[in-house]
Amino acid sequence: MFPELGSKGRIAIATFWLAGQAALILTGPMRADGAFAFRMFPESSTIDVQLVREVVAQSGHGTEVVPVDRGAWLAHDEKGTLHRFRWDDRVKDGNIFPYGHPVHAGYGAGAQLQRLAHALDDVATHIDGDADTVRLVANVTVRKNGGPPEHVRLESRTRDLR
Question: Residue 160 falls within a domain, yes or no?
């Protein structure tokens, strides 16, 4: 089934495998989720996400900020018809729902913020029929290990409304 490698081949494969494992462990702390990094105690952090939309200002110049209530909003399409959009139509991760109450950041605050940033971009690129929203913005309050609150602003890519 497997070819006979001989002792030099087995040593080469073992060396390659050990080097790969060492690389994963040494670079673990550099990843947002800390995968392969040893942590004796998990991070005990919370995030509180407030989702808003930047929409075209009624004056036609610039943008205005409109809050998103409980993950849903109404927006017009190109023809002026009003449609309802929901955050959780695209995002199924309950730890990044923007419903105005803190949630536990199970894999650490950095990992949750990274996931939230990706979710903002995903939702912004998949809200076809929303001709009002220029970008989605998450204003996040992070409490890392019970410490003082930190405020982070995450923005989706700017949408081309033409």
Answer: no
CA distances from 3 to 8, 9, 10, 17, 147 (A): 13, 10, 11, 18, 56
Give the confidence band of 101 by pLDDT, cuts at 50, 70, 90.
Answer: confident
**Pairing relationship of beta strands 46-56 and 133-143 according to DSSP bridges:** antiparallel
On whether residue 137 sits in a domain, the answer given is: yes
In a domain, 60, yes or no: yes
Q: What is the pLDDT of residues 7-25, one digit of tens each?
A: 888 888 889 999 988 888 8
Task: Report yes or no on 139 lying in a domain.
Answer: yes
Give the amino acid at 6: G
- State phi, psi for 112 to the nearest 5 degrees: -65, -40
Structural domain total, the chain: 2
pTM of the complete model: 0.76
